[in-house]
Amino acid sequence: MLPKGGITRCSLAEVPVGCSLNVAFISFPGRHTSYMEAGNHTEVSEFLLLGLSEDPELQPLLFGVFLSMYLVTVLGNLLIILAISSDSHLHTPMYFFLSNLSFVDICFISTTIPKMLVNNQKQSKDISYIGCLSQVYFFMVFAGMDDFLLTVMAYDRFVAICHPLHYVVIMNPRLCCILVLMCWLIILSVSLFHILLMVRLTFCIGTEIPHFFCELAQVLKVACSDTLINNISLYVATALLCAFPLTGILFSYSQIVSSLMRMSSAGGKYKAFSTCGSHLSAVSLFYGTSLGVYLSSAVTHSSQRSSATSVMYTVVTPMLNPFIYSLRNKDVKGALGRLLNRATPCV
Predict the structure, then answer these.
(1) Rounded to an integer, what distance in angstroms lies between the CA atom of residue 98 and that of residue 336?
(2) Would you state the pLDDT for residue 75?
(3) How many CB atoms lie within 10 A of CB 318?
(4) Where are the beta strands (DSSP E) in the chain?
């Protein structure tokens, strides 16, 4: 509670993140402010996003760079979706999950970058409380879905390599849809739970977030009301939703490696493991950037450096996924070529 008739300015410090899922839960852009005055509860429904830099000369450069990265991400992932949907040879479980991953990556980057670009052009740093709630909710949803889908794709590769004769029976269309639906239901419910806990909090006037999007853990740190339940829920959910997917991925690949070791043919080993190359690259990028953000946050107290580092998991990872799956996969590369040939009119 603030002093009577007084207004307190609060600044948010960057907090470390342990994994992208953690980042999802830690990502909340808002500046909802409130204070008590003469026994009345007055609210200012606005936050202030400080962005990556306050230097006016850097703003045009930042706008150009992030707009280019955003367009490349959306176009690349959209081409993956179109190539898979238009080529009957790619109507398999592995590519069904890949098309879902591409869709989630488009939504993931669209949660943060468009608002940043708009603020850059308008030379404004404001974000409404409702906009902040929406941003943190959808950021948690799509970051969590990225993690879950990578886990499901690891399970798909495990079945394909360790149980090839039963692959078609096990990974039938019904099971694939159920797996994706379960992922959506779990992460939507968890994200909604955090939002419902957060809306009961009050915040100080003039809350500044040293980031280009909102992070939930930072907002909790400047809340004027008690956040014990919020913090406990945040850490428990983050631990569980990071541990289970990562454990599933590690278990799947341990079984894959064990199965490959029992193969006598070197060519068979290479062919089987080559189907996992793109997925392993995507997993390494996803968890590697998250670990990098965590380590950088642990060794530096500079909010601008931490914000710059977070660009890796919020922008770079969704942008690179289409290149990973197209350049390292002959089937996708061929489907993209046929799609572009049909789209390009004959001269």
Answers:
(1) 14
(2) 95
(3) 30
(4) 32-37, 40-49, 126-128, 208-209
Name the pTM for this structure.
Answer: 0.83
- For 44, phi then psi, to 5°, come to -110, 110
Question: Strand pairing of 208-209 and 40-49?
Answer: parallel
Contact present, 44 and 294 (Cβ < 8 Å): no
For residues 205-219, one letter each, b for 16 or more C-beta atoms within 10 angstroms of the residue's C-beta and e for the rest, the string is bbbbbbbbbbbbbbb
Cα distance between residue 284 and residue 26, in whole Å: 21
CB 220 within 8 A of CB 231: yes
3 vs 82, higher pLDDT: 82
Q: Rounded to the nearest 5°, which phi and psi values hold at 170?
A: -70, -55
CA 264, 162, 243: angle at the middle one, nearest 5?
A: 125
Burial-class residue 334 by CB neighbours within 10 Å (0-12, 13-18, 19+).
Answer: middle
Instruction: Sort residue 206 into left (φ over 0), alpha (ψ -120 to 50) or beta.
Output: left
Higher-confidence residue of 307 and 232: namely 232
Distances (CA, A) of 55 to 11, 121, 304: 19, 14, 12
State pLDDT tens for residues 157-206: 999 999 989 999 999 999 999 999 999 999 999 999 999 998 888 877 77
The type of residue at 200 is R
CB atoms within 10 A of CB 323: 13
Give 225-246 pLDDT, tens digit per residue.
888 898 899 889 888 888 899 9
Indicate if the pLDDT at residue 9 is higher than 80. no
Give which of 322, 285, 300, 307 is closest to 116, Cα–Cα: 307
